[in-house]
Design a protein that fits this description.
heterodimer; A: alpha/beta; four-stranded antiparallel sheet; B: mainly alpha; two-stranded antiparallel sheet; 2 strands
């Protein structure tokens, strides 16, 4: 395992004070497979924090564990001071946490409008449909189309758009750029930047750190189900060599 | 010619029961992934519930149409909460065996207390008599069963295909984990859906009581045909169940007129043919 750099703060070192999400010793299992081995990190309000790591490192499992959709987990996940570890995912969502899954989760039996309106509004402050269509004009033209008939980029937009309506202030985006054309990636980057400006807190999972560097405030590097390093975006250049080693690029 | 029309009417009435029962089965299969073999027993319970309401509580047919589906639906929800929910994620076979066992127990209990013969349930006064349509005589109660079933089927289709609640149901059929992560209480929705499906079976039971009498095995006689209807329509397909239910009732009725010897098997012959040509059923989607 690569040595943790001393130039940056060690994993989880960021103060718990003023954090919106505090993850401590999070462990998760898929059946008999032990996936997360004690994740420690935090996210502050209004930040975009990115989990970086190779395939299979445990990034997606971390998001699923926070959201409560992993069968078995232990440790502590606190959101605004409330412990989530024993909560069911529907209750977690109602606290204002929303997940945009890696596979996008567009429902084939629902049209675009139904997909968009599916997640219930859990608290005030969500985007209106007009605001969503301003962000993603393509969706407005495809409202009657079957959700899965959209292009990959449009499906990604739909997957992000539908959680913006809910009023959730903490968004977890799992590989939102995966498999998309550069022009769409750029549009998603603009969207994330705009959401950040509007006060959303975002936990992003990305393998594409070039994309992540355009939006992230901080990074955590995940390997073998643990955070092994963490640094601010300002320290990215200084950490580039190490990041290449971590990610094997 | 009168005999043909009479058989058509019988076919439509049978089709109404097939449609209501297969609709309930489709709703339950779509949402819970359970092949609910207890459906026939729950249909029978609906008829018995109407019988008890009338003979013990003095509650008439019209109230029974409302109360029996609610009472049996609550019984279904208790079954779901206490037994069926533990089968989530397991092979279909477990659900089939468990519900088959429930059906045997429920039918056995009723048979023990009430025997095998039918108990009479009178047609309500407002629906007695008939109308001469010129080409045939239409008993009013039978016409009411067809129209009312059609209205309930269309209303259920509308609920599932055209409302926000229906969108939740459809989405949860595809990916319950994600729907729950959106903040929707999926386990409660599953319980209510099972209650809805069971309520539809009980409603069919109440409608059937004045025509077929109230018998412990009335559901067992019907359930195999209803499963054939569901398979032909496409497992889990709402509209497929409704259309196939009515269509097969009519086909069965016509067969009784043209070739009575085949009337008991025509539905199964059609099922085999449909499965050969389109294994997912007429309106079903591939898994």
């Amino acid at each position: 395992m690569p040595e943790v750099m001393t130039a940056t703060r060690s994993p989880g070192e960021y103060s718990a004070a003023g954090t919106i999400l505090e993850v401590r010793n999070l462990e998760s299992w898929y059946g008999e497979s032990h996936i997360l081995h004690g994740m420690n990190f935090n996210v502050k309000p209004g930040e975009v924090v990115t989990l970086l790591g190779r395939n299979g490192a445990g990034k997606t499992t971390t998001l699923k564990s926070i959201m409560g959709i992993i069968g078995k987990r232990s440790g502590s996940v606190q959101f605004n001071g409330r412990e989530l570890i024993r909560m069911t995912s529907d209750k977690i969502a109602r606290l204002g946490i929303a997940l945009c899954p890696e596979e996008r989760g567009i429902f084939a039996s629902l049209d675009v409008r139904e997909n968009l309106l599916l997640p219930p509004v859990v608290r005030p402050g969500g985007l209106t449909l007009d605001q969503i269509f301003e962000l993603f004009p393509n969706l407005k033209e495809r409202l009657k189309s079957q959700g899965t008939k959209l292009s990959g980029g449009e499906q990604q937009m739909l997957a992000i758009a539908r959680i913006l309506r809910t009023g959730a202030s903490f968004l977890m985006l799992d590989e939102p750029t995966e498999g998309l054309a550069p022009v769409i990636i750029q549009q998603i980057g603009h969207t994330i930047a705009r959401l950040k400006k509007e006060g959303f807190t975002i936990l992003l999972v990305e393998q594409n750190f070039r994309f992540a560097s355009t939006v992230a405030d901080r990074y955590y590097v995940v390997e073998h189900g643990k955070v092994i390093d963490g640094f601010a975006n300002a320290d990215l250049a200084a950490n580039m060599d190490k990041l290449h080693t971590y990610l094997g690029v | 010619m009168q005999a043909l029309y009479a058989q058509l009417l019988v076919g439509l009435i049978n089709g109404s029961f097939y449609a209501l029962l297969s609709l309930g089965l489709a709703v339950i299969f779509g949402m819970l992934n359970i092949i609910n073999f207890a459906h026939g027993a729950l249909y029978m319970m609906g008829a018995f519930c109407a019988y008890f309401l009338l003979n013990i509580g003095g509650i008439n047919y019209w109230w029974a149409l409302l109360l029996a589906p609610i009472i049996v639906g609550i019984f279904g929800m208790i079954l779901e909460r206490t037994l069926l929910q533990w089968l989530t994620g397991l092979d279909h076979l477990y659900g089939l065996l468990l519900t088959f066992g429930i059906a045997l127990i429920v039918q056995g209990l009723f048979q023990n207390y009430f025997g095998s013969s039918g108990l009479p349930y009178a047609i309500p006064d407002q629906l007695r008599g008939g109308m001469n349509l010129g080409f045939m005589f239409l008993p009013i109660y039978r016409g009411w069963v067809v129209v009312f079933s059609l209205v309930i089927c269309v209303a259920t289709w509308f609920l599932i295909e055209r409302t926000r609640l229906g969108a939740y149901l459809r989405a949860a059929t595809e990916n319950p984990t994600l729907v729950r992560a959106f903040g929707i209480n999926v386990p409660r929705m599953i319980t209510l859906t099972y209650g809805l499906g069971v309520g539809l079976a009980a409603l069919a039971g109440v409608l059937s009581a004045p025509i077929n009498q109230v018998r412990p095995l009335m559901g067992a006689d019907l359930i195999i045909v209803v499963f054939a209807v569901v398979v032909i329509g496409g497992m889990g397909s709402i509209m497929g169940s409704i259309i196939t239910g009515f269509a097969l009732g009519v086909i069965e009725g016509l067969t009784k007129y043209f070739y009575p010897e085949a009337s008991n098997t025509v539905v199964f012959v059609l099922m085999v043919l449909v499965l050969l040509v389109k294994p997912t059923g007429l309106t079903g989607r591939a898994a």
